[in-house]
Specification:
- The complex is a heterodimer of chains A (207) and B (427).
- Chain A has 13 helices and no strands.
- Chain A is mainly α and 207 residues long.
- Chain A has 2 domains: 109 residues, Orthogonal Bundle (Fumarate Reductase Iron-sulfur Protein, Chain B, domain 2); 83 residues, no CATH class.
- The longest helix of chain A has 19 residues.
- In chain B, a hairpin with a 2-residue loop joins strand 4 and strand 5.
- In chain B, helix 1 runs parallel beside helix 8 and helix 6 crosses helix 7.
- Classes of the chains: A mainly alpha (207), B alpha/beta (427).
- At the A-B interface, helix 3 of A face strand 18 of B.
């Protein structure tokens, strides 16, 4: 449990909707939901969600803070945008789901072992390092995130696809050596740092 | 139409549905001269296509007949059918209304004997049944049509069929040389009662109205239930003519949706509730009606009707906007997919037939014809800077029959005030 989480709990007390509106990307849309359920029915991964989007919106309004922020549900979103297209009130549901996931992550409440969260973290660290994705490093980190043995097994089961990609020159096995970052890596780092500062200031997160 | 005399004390009513007819009769009964213009070949509009009204469940023929009697008996009303208004110019107390009179190819001699229809073999889609049936290209629009005169469809003109129809007529009523005419009337005030049309259900892509035979609209269902309709009142589904005993009704099909119509169309909830009574009427306890809804908007006293339907064990209410529909190709059944709001249960429900309770949109884009303020949905603003052009019925808002008639009467009062002012000024 982070300090940031304690700060937010103290600041918003029992008004979780207000907290979401202020801190979650596109969170101000949550109160516009009219509970028609077309998003939940339209989600291709719908059956895999513990709480479909419609229910998440209702839970936010009902103040179920822990249940929402600790949930695996919003991490299931694959950004297919079916829900946004069909929502009769044009709620940016995909963005709200990512916003909630991101917020839960920043508060330290997101499920630690959630694969989407872990992938997102690996991807982010990878791309930030040089300003460009190092694909071979990303793939290997992903394979071996659950230990060496597990990684070898996973890689073995995917070997046909891997070889196919090599043949089609979609995967560079020498990527560790040949990978080139962007021209001004330091500039990128400065920009990201600034962006983070601005976001924290706007949302009132303590630095 | 040289026999039409119009002055700037005349009230022109555009649209001959229930609102326009009411407005014309009310205005004429206060002693004003009225010209009633209707684009179709007969009066009656969409109300004549209903099987029953809610909430009393009486047949619209009754109300129509009363209005027609008042209308026929009043010499102050001049009715022009097949009259399409092109342009309205001028200001309160001094309007010019330009209309095209489309040829009917049948004159006043017609006795509606039907000999021309018997002689003709060509068939066209029957718009009265929303295209669910075909009819002869020489036709009476519907049994209660006013005027009671046949129409020769323009597609026949220049063919042998047209000559056959003419030869079959014993009253010299068919005139194949009729041409479109453009006429202009003066008017002191205009009552705009052009009504509504059902929202194009094919635009609601996930529901597959354009792909699945057994997904129909509420107005089409109304025709299926009507004993004078394409199935003689038997509720048969389009794909195989099987009796549809298990019917799903989807509310807000196109309404309250920023991708379609943003407004609530007001009538659709009551229309579906009413249509569940048709199901019980036909199939008794074997009927199965399922209403998929966001919330039921049975306004004012209609709550009683809602409660009566709720008490019917054959009617199920599922609080959910259906996400999409698929078709079981082997049986033609439709399968509705979604998640309900009362417990978040995922469902894949099979039905014989699915009825989309489609929304209302204005039938014409008024602004192309006249300088009139409309709201975001295209309905005429009641209190807009519209001079003496007054919206009535569904041209002004999404209304049921009862409220359309009230709106028409209200617009007459405003029109009469304008015309009286003109009369006083002219001494």
């Amino acid at each position: 449990m982070s300090d940031l989480n304690t700060t937010m709990v103290n600041e918003y007390r029992s008004n979780f909707l207000k907290e979401v509106e202020a801190n979650v990307e596109e969170g101000r849309w949550v109160k516009m939901c009219m509970q028609c359920g077309v998003c939940s029915g339209s989600c291709p991964l719908g059956p895999a969600w513990e709480h479909p989007p419609q229910e998440i919106f209702m839970m936010i309004r009902a103040g179920k803070r822990d249940e929402v922020l600790k949930s695996e549900s919003m991490w299931m979103c694959t950004s297919c945008y079916n829900c946004i297209v069909r929502c009769p009130r044009e709620l940016p549901i995909t963005h709200i789901m990512h916003g909630l996931a991101n917020y839960a992550h920043r508060l330290g409440l997101a499920p630690k072992m959630n694969p989407t969260r872990r992938f997102a973290k690996i991807f982010w660290d990878n791309i930030v390092k040089s300003g460009r994705v190092n694909e071979i490093e990303l793939s290997l980190r992903l394979y071996f995130m659950d230990g060496f043995k597990n990684g070898v097994e996973k890689a073995w089961s995917m070997k046909d696809i891997g070889l196919g990609m090599l043949k089609a020159r979609r995967l560079n096995p020498l990527g560790f050596v040949t990978h080139k970052g962007c021209k001004d890596t330091k500039g990128i780092h400065r920009m990201l740092k600034k962006a983070r500062e601005i976001e924290d200031r706007r949302k009132g997160f303590a630095a | 139409m040289a026999d039409v005399v119009a002055t700037n004390e005349t009230i022109v009513v555009i649209g001959g549905g229930i609102s326009g007819m009411t407005a014309a009769v009310e205005a004429a009964e206060t002693g004003k001269d009225v010209i009633l213009l209707e684009r179709a070949p007969s009066l009656g509009g969409r109300v004549s296509q209903l099987y029953k009204y809610f909430p009393k469940l009486c047949h619209p023929t009754c109300g129509m007949e009363i209005n027609l009697r008042r209308l026929r008996g009043n010499r102050r009303i001049k009715v022009l059918t097949l009259a399409e208004v092109q342009k309205v110019t001028g200001e309160a107390g001094n309007y010019q209304v330009t209309a095209t009179l489309h040829p009917r190819f049948v004159n006043e001699n017609c006795t509606a004997c039907g000999a021309c229809a018997e002689a003709v073999t060509a068939e066209i889609d029957n718009p009265f049944d929303y295209g669910l049936s075909r009819m002869k290209a020489a036709y009476l629009p519907f049994t209660m049509a006013h005027p009671q005169r046949y129409v020769i469809d323009p597609s026949l003109i220049g063919t042998e069929e047209a000559q056959k129809a003419k030869d079959a007529c014993r009253y010299d009523a068919i005139d194949l040389d009729m041409k479109p005419e453009t006429v202009t009337f003066s008017a002191g005030a205009i009552i705009w009662a052009t009504g509504w049309r059902p929202y194009d259900a094919a635009k609601i892509q996930p529901y597959g109205y354009d792909r699945y035979a057994n997904v129909i609209t509420s107005v089409e269902f109304e025709r299926l239930a009507d004993t004078r309709g394409p199935t003689g009142g038997r509720i048969l589904r389009p794909s195989d003519g099987k009796e549809a005993k298990n019917v799903a009704f989807i509310q807000c099909a196109g309404s309250r949706d920023r991708n379609h119509l943003t407004h609530c169309s007001r009538i659709c909830c009551m229309a579906s509730l009413k249509q569940t009574t048709y199901m019980r009427e036909r199939f008794g306890d074997d009927a199965q009606s399922s209403i998929y809804y966001i919330d039921i908007r049975a306004i004012d006293r209609f709550e009683d009707f809602y409660q009566k339907v709720q008490a019917d064990s054959t009617v199920k209410f599922i609080k959910s906007k259906v996400a999409n529909i698929t078709e079981d190709e082997a049986t033609g059944d439709v399968i509705l997919h979604g998640v309900d709001t009362e417990g978040y249960h995922r469902y894949d429900n099979r039905h014989d037939l699915c009825v989309l309770a489609v929304g209302m949109e204005p039938s014409v884009d008024v602004r192309r014809i006249a300088d009139v303020a409309v709201d975001a949905s295209g309905f005429i603003e009641v209190n807009g800077p519209n001079g003496a052009i007054f919206g009535a019925g569904c041209a002004a808002n999404a209304l049921d029959v009862n409220r359309s008639v009230q709106s028409a009467t209200a617009s007459v009062l405003r029109a009469v005030q304008v015309v009286n002012r003109v009369a006083k000024a002219e001494g």
